[in-house]
Amino acid sequence: MAENPLILDPHGGMPRLLEIMRRLRDPENGCPWDIDQDFSTIAPYTIEEAYEVADAIEREAWDELKGELGDLLFQSVFHAQMAAEKGLFTFDEVADTMSDKMVARHPHVFGDESRDKSAEQQTRDWETIKAAERAGKAQKGTLDGVAVGLPALLRAFKLQKRAARVGFDWPDATHVLDKITEEAHELAEARDSLSQDEIEDEFGDLLFVMANLARHMNVDPEAALRRTNQKFIRRFEAVEAHLAARGKRPEESTLEEMDALWDQVKAEEKADSNS
Q: What positions does the domain NTP pyrophosphohydrolase MazG-like occupy (predicted)?
């Protein structure tokens, strides 16, 4: 089979990528793995690639970001190719839909509205436009349209944000902190008297209120937890390095020794940040 010159063109851009995807899914000459996929099997990869993009940005790994964005773009191309095969829509229609949405949501840029607005006012206008779009899709409930496939912590954050728009919210962070204390006490009591399902329920309540506190404090809970994960990795690896210098591995050490090294690492980080 003669190769399409576009596929070998290093400067073929978007048309090249679309043609590569079409060939990968070709029933006769494509890749068996790619042919075998469907929307549900590819969706987890799409989510994973989005997090890879976020990770590269958080690490300021700009040399990696180009590739990660390409991986994420390929996910959209993959889904669009499968949709085209089913006669649902094409990649061009995906792009046109996004363009129409951005033009409609930015009347202060592409329309007659004034650009003389604060970022806060523009955010309120954006939410008003999105609410009208949901109404046009017959999404009548306040919580309609919050994606089920979001990570649970992020979805909790978005659900509470949506509810707050209609006044279902605590007036300030103090009330949220009181609720956290209440939920923590309930969880402590539940561990000795309730079933595992009931304990999980109480734990979920505590996490849900923590997500609400994040919103009240203008913190992205997913970003905050990712940062803490990275901090834990960095510090634990430093503990491992100190142990290695003593000829030990963590499993050959005691909790007391590792705890002392953990405190030492924290102190060293604080000293470095103040120097």
A: 37-110, 176-237
Q: Where are the domains of the chain?
A: 5-104, 141-219, 223-274
Residues 45 and 33 sit within 8 Å (Cβ to Cβ): no
d(CA 158, CA 214) in angstroms, rounded, equals 11
| 83 Cβ contact list (under 8 Å, min separation 6) | 89, 90
**Rounded to whole angstroms, how far apart are CA atoms 187 and 205?**
9
SS3 content of the chain, % helix, strand, coil (to 5): 75, 0, 25
| Higher-pLDDT residue of 33, 5 | 33
The pLDDT confidence band at residue 136, using thresholds 50, 70 and 90, is: low
Contacts of 4 (CB under 8 A, 6+ apart): 19, 23
Q: Is 261 exposed, middle or buried (0-12, 13-18, 19+ CB in 10 A)?
A: buried
| Two structure tokens written together for 257 | 């020794």
Place of tokens 């030492």: 264
Q: How confident is the model at residue 171 (pLDDT cuts 50, 70, 90)?
A: very high
Q: What whole-number distance in Å separates Cα of residue 47 and Cα of residue 225?
A: 17
- What stretch of H or E contains 136? helix 119-136
Question: Which residue did the predictor score with more confidence, 115 or 188?
Answer: 188
141-219: CATH architecture: Orthogonal Bundle (1.10)
The helix/strand/coil state of 105 is helix
Q: Residues 43, 49, 55, 57: what is their CA dihedral angle, to the nearest 10 degrees?
A: -120
In sequence order, what are the residues at sequence separation of 6 or more whose Cβ sits closer than 8 angstroms to the Cβ of residue 5? none
Q: Is the pTM of this model over 0.70?
A: no
Cα(275)–Cα(241) distance, integer angstroms = 23
Does the domain at 5-104 match CATH 1.10.287.1080? Answer given as yes
